[in-house]
Amino acid sequence: MPEWRKDPIVDRWVIIATERGKRPMDYKEIIEEKKSQDCPLCEGSEMKTPPEIIAYREPGTARDTPGWWVRVVPNKFPALQIEGEAVQQHRGVYDYMNGVGAHEVIVESNSHISGMNMQSDKQVEEIIWIWRDRSLDLRKDTRLKYIQIFKNYGSAGGASLEHTHSQLIATPLVPADIKQEIKGMKDYANRYGSCVMCDMLRQERAEQDRLVIEGNHFMSFSPFASRFPFETWIVPKEHQYDFAQIREAQVKDLASVMKRTLSKLSHMIKNVPYNMVLHSSPVNMQNETHFHWHLEIMPRLTLMAGFELGTGYFINPTPPEIAAQALRETEEVYPIRDEYMKEVRHYV
User: Fold this and answer.
1) At CA 172, angle to CA 170 and CA 174, rounded to 5?
2) Is 217 marked as binding a ligand?
3) Does the pLDDT of residue 341 top 70, yes or no?
4) Which of 92, 114, 189, 297 is deepest in the core (most CB within 10 A)?
5) 239 is an annotated ligand-binding site residue
6) Is residue 203 part of a domain?
7) pLDDT grade, residue 270 (50/70/90)?
């Protein structure tokens, strides 16, 4: 029988449509059209991108030349630009402001590979470190209030380049979804005296039904009110409101849990498109210490149609308990790559 489920953080109900009964084997391999090999993100193509902002590279190598293993550049077609004043203006019933912000591309490998699961654990650690470095640097600009790190994978996930990369957009406003999460976590803390995410982790560990991977510092699980088939969250066990608080031991564990989770997902449904978003607390504002930062992985296996767009309710045909069991039982397969990776020289 179908079931309504409420997200414990935000006031959002989801329909788990068990009558539609889509099981893991019902999702077929996604056929991705091969893109041009003339890739602007590969090593040796540095002049095809805007000048780099930062790169982890070999000592003695110059900016915008080979020798890097993670590189950050401005988006060539930015949604927002850093110039201008973040002053809200009014015209009648309408509010507006200049398109102030930052839009950056994090090139996750100097090799032409498509997925984070194809990287070494050490390389994924480096990606996490550069996410942190950019978050710490951008918050120095007091105009910026929120830093959204995200990854689009596959055509249905909005990726226009197949070379593995993530993105960052910093905004002068706090997004409505983040405000809703902040309010939900604050209301829960006021009502029960504890963190809703910490309580969720305790229940997921106790019940095991939706747990995918438990590491030393992070857990991945299918949320109780999953909006999408195989939606998976990765959450730090320690209560931290700001992603930039992450420590070296946590970076190592997050790299492992994230890579293993994505490996299971991509092995179960080949070329599965997804969006991954990092939700952290706002910056340059009062600290939202009751917030609990987390990563959300949202596979793009279903379409939003009239009902979803008209009501805001999601219909998920695959119960999270079935999705989590399938992911737990899926073998972690990693491509064999002759990858050359220098010893990490980046420290907290």
Assistant:
1) 85
2) no
3) no
4) 297
5) no
6) yes
7) confident
Average pLDDT over residues 334-342: 48
Hey, what's the torsion of the CAs at 32, 37, 41, 42, to 10 degrees? 120
- Sorted by sequence, the CB contacts under 8 Å of residue 197 that are 6+ apart come out as 9, 185, 235, 239, 292, 294
Q: What is the pLDDT of residue 339?
A: 45
Residue 344 belongs to a domain: no
In a domain, 249, yes or no: yes
Q: Which residues are catalytic?
A: 165
DSSP state of 81: B
* Domain membership flag for residue 337: no
Range of the domain at 95: 3-329
Token duo for residue 100: 């102030």
For residue 178, what is the domain's CATH number? 3.30.428.10
- Of the candidates 233, 222, 181, 225, the one whose C-alpha atom is nearest the C-alpha of residue 10 is 181
Q: Is 195 annotated as a binding residue?
A: no
Handedness of CA 55, 61, 65, 67 (dihedral sign): negative
Residue 163 annotated as binding site = yes
Phi, psi of 268 (to 5 degrees): -70, -45
Binned at pLDDT 50, 70 and 90, residue 114 comes out as confident
C-alpha to C-alpha distances, 243 to 143, 223, 250, 326, nearest whole angstrom: 19, 20, 11, 29
Query: Among 50, 62, 69, which residue's Cα sits nearest to residue 107?
Result: 69
0.85 surpassed by pTM: yes
Alpha helices in the chain (DSSP H): 121-138, 176-192, 196-207, 248-268, 306-311, 320-329
Q: What mean pLDDT is predicted for residues 120-135?
A: 97
**Structural contact between residues 1 and 301, judged by C-beta atoms closer than 8 angstroms:** no
Number of domains in the chain: 1
25 band by pLDDT with thresholds 50, 70 and 90:
low
